[in-house]
Amino acid sequence: MSGAAACLLVAALAGAPVDLRVLAGADAFLATDPGVTSLAGAELGLTLRAEARGLVRRPGPQVDLKLDFAGRESFVGQRQFNNLYELKVVVRDLANGRVDLTFGRFRLPGGFWLFADGGMITARYTPWLSQSFYGGLRAFTTGRRNTWMADSPVALPIAGTTLSLDRKRVQAQLSFTYAKDAVDLPLGAGLMLGQLRLERHLTDEYFLDGYVTVYPHDRVFLTAGASLGTRYDVQFDAQNPYGATTLGVSTLGAVSAYGVVEGRPHKRVRLQYSVNFERVRLFSSEALATQPDGTVGTVQAADGSFQDHVLRAIWLAWRALRVEGSYRLRYRGNTDLQHRLQLGARGDDLFRGMGLFLSIGIDVNTLTGKIANRVIYSGGLSYVRRWLDVRAGVYFTDGIGSGLAFSARQPTYPAGVPAELFPYVLESNRVAFVRGFATFWKMYAGLDVEENLDRAQLRVLAQLGVSL
Questions:
Q1: How do 443-452 and 370-371 pair as beta strands?
Q2: Nearby residues of 368 by Cβ (< 8 Å), 6 or more positions away
Q3: Does the pLDDT value for residue 424 go beyond 60?
Q4: CA–CA separation, 312 and 456 (whole Å)
Q5: Residue 181: which H helix or E strand, with range?
Q6: CA distance 10 to 48
Q7: Which residue from 464, 383, 450 is spatially nearest to 33, judged by alpha carbons?
């Protein structure tokens, strides 16, 4: 659906006597980087979210509508996307409140980026136990490309079920989803010629996701969850590395898990322990290398898998001022150890709207037999009023699973075009920033300026919107 069609839908809903909520905005984004000139990194973005509840004005089943659309387009070149994330109709409280029906495009339960064009039925077996069954066509691939709404449409089936439990002190959910995926890989020969040519593989995917949250006491909180999904082993032809590839499927190759235990021994003190595991594995199945026995076999090119163990203590010292100390142990799959000790304080509106945040920490690391230690820090000021929020300072960013390497923009083809992840991802950098956000009448406006202190990268985001 185009942005114009989405606006027409919201305009039609606006005249109905229903509970209508609308959030619409536009933003202009500019990023600079060595090798990217003029407006090559500039984009215009549009966002529209609308929800209408209670379209039926009488007792009994109710009807809701929801729309979620976002699009971006570059000022220079052909980079663009227009994604319709949700456009659904929900019929609630059928069969004496035991059944809900959903039609259209909707997000699927679980921790994966899955959207379906189809239908879902939710049955409540008891007031606290329900199950959903859904199916249809997949809206986006794992690579976040449109499927049947693209220039080269492809129909990818998707189906699954979710079991949900919701008690006063226990919430839990378990989801399983099967989907077909279209994996698009760039052909090496096309890159050598300065043209982007893709080859497409159709394969099966399986996703398993679940979590449980427990409140055993008013001052104690526990939660844990895990996500497992299909990933691929891209196999190159050892005789022709620029030729077509094949896929070896690792059915549950993507694994992540987390757990959190939190308690409040005192009303001003919060203690927390968290653990997180991320499985990151890269393989080269047909490596251009010979094994000791003279054969060419599967070689693991990299293993970024890691687990984090974090101890954190937070003390509410005065008004909104919080003092926090933490220790993180990161254990990598290659036996590297990383220790991080950090101490900081933060608080808004401490005196006539003024606030602050600051932290300092040290990393003590042993990476593949080398000592690599560093000091990390963040700090700045804030000014907060009911309608205004302004912040400025320097903060340290650390990408998930990153080591000590600082981000660097990789060469792209053709030259001069921003890399796909730049400028949205900055890993392990010090960034100076100024941010302002204001609300007035039923509108909002914001400005965000960031300068990378470790590399000549500037990012500017200006936004303006309305909330009804």
A1: unpaired
A2: 334, 336
A3: no
A4: 34
A5: strand 170-186
A6: 9
A7: 450
Q: What is the mean pLDDT of residues 257-271?
A: 96
Token duo for residue 196: 């982007």
- Which residue is it, tokens 């205004």? 388
Q: Please tell me the predicted confidence (pLDDT) of residue 248.
A: 67
User: Using CA atoms, how far apart are residues 167 and 100, in angstroms rounded to an integer?
Assistant: 19
Does residue 467 contact residue 51 with C-beta atoms inside 8 Å?
no
Q: Give the DSSP letter of residue 397.
A: E
- Using pLDDT thresholds of 50, 70 and 90, give the confidence band for residue 93: very high
State the CB neighbour count (10 A cutoff) for residue 43.
20
pLDDT score, position 52: 93
Task: Give the Cα separation of 106 and 87 in Å (integer).
Answer: 7
Question: With 50 as the cut, is the pLDDT of residue 418 above it?
Answer: no
Distances (CA, A) of 62 to 106, 107, 123: 18, 20, 16
Residue 327, token pair as written in the block: 């220790």
Token match 């699973």: residue? 401
Average pLDDT score over residue span 435-443? 94
Q: How far apart are CA 58 and CA 18, in angstroms?
A: 12
CB 386 within 8 A of CB 408: no
| Amino acid identity at 377 | Y
CB 193 within 8 A of CB 247: no
Closest C-alpha to 13, from 59, 53, 69: 53
Please tell me whether residue 96 adopts helix, strand or coil conformation: helix
Cβ 390 vs Cβ 383: under 8 Å: yes
User: Could you tell me the two tokens for 322?
Assistant: 């919080």
> Sorting pLDDT into bands at 50, 70 and 90, what band is 303?
low
Quick one: which of 30, 33, 25 has its CA closest to 3? Answer: 25
Q: Are strands 129-138 and 299-303 parallel, antiparallel or unpaired?
A: unpaired
**Size (the chain), residues:** 468
- Per-residue tokens: 301: 């090119």
**pLDDT for res 401:** 42
pLDDT value at residue 246: 72
Q: Are strands 281-284 and 269-278 parallel, antiparallel or unpaired?
A: unpaired
d(CA 165, CA 206): 23
pLDDT value, residue 438: 97
Helix (H) or strand (E) holding 11, with range, is helix 3-14
SS3 state of residue 191: helix
Asked whether the predicted pLDDT for residue 420 surpasses 50, the reply is no
State the Cα–Cα distance between residues 138 and 159, nearest whole angstrom: 9
pLDDT-derived band at 325 (thresholds 50, 70, 90) equals very high
Distance CA(316)–CA(339), nearest Å, equals 26
Q: Strand pairing partners for 323?
A: 315, 345
Please check the confidence at residue 6 and state whether its pLDDT lies above 70.
Answer: no
Give the distance from CA 293 to its chain's centroid: 43
Structure tokens at 364: 């003590």
